[in-house]
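Quick illustration, no need to memorize.
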Amino acid sequence: MIHLDLIGIGTGHPDHLTRAAEAAMRAADLILLPRKAEKAELIDLRRAICAQVLAGADVRVVEFDLPERAGEGDYLDTVERWHDAIAACWAAAIARGLPGGGRVALLVWGDPSLYDSTIRIARRLIAAERAVRVTVVPGITSLQLLCAAHAIPFNAVGAPVMVTTGRRLREGGWPEGVDSVAVMLDGACAFTTLDQPDVMIWWGAYLGMAQQATERGRLVEVADRIVARRAELRRAHGWIMDVYLLRRGSDLAGEGA
């Protein structure tokens, strides 16, 4: 039997780990850490978290190279094939590291439930190997950290929030029926395509990390500044993770001033 723990670890700051996350890490027989060449800082953060949490614990930490997603082809098809490849890497690493079974953990940025595919990939292992049990340990999300960094509420009073991706915002424009939109996975600054003169934006990158960066203001006034700063940060670090909240009919004086 393989017991697979998917542990949400927040967005890079060791203090954002919950007690449940720390306990799950220390209870593991094996922790798998994915490597991605262009994001060396991320593996370094995971290593630092392990060193801090696992001090004195008998837990092995094994690193593996994460497959790259194909850059061409149908989006959903390339994602499916990418997930298949990642599941195969997990299975191989687990077979080598725990041939007799045991408890293995994967550290997931933010929370495994929010725009993360770790749970979907884990289901592939369950389908292939009946003797796999999956447990999810929740973590702090980038949306929580974004609101904390700007000292704003996630939603307006009694109102809904749409959580979506940059690709969907660019293709479909402002979602109908909502005045607040949280946007993740936006590598192309989709907010620049909106014609919304009364929208405010609260933006954050590397939230929870030492290099955390934030911007806020009326979208028409700060959009170009965010695009420029985002490009500068990406050049400096070789990668970037950012998120933002858009709200119509709001103002800085009322929220996060």
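The two ends are 53 Å apart (CA to CA).
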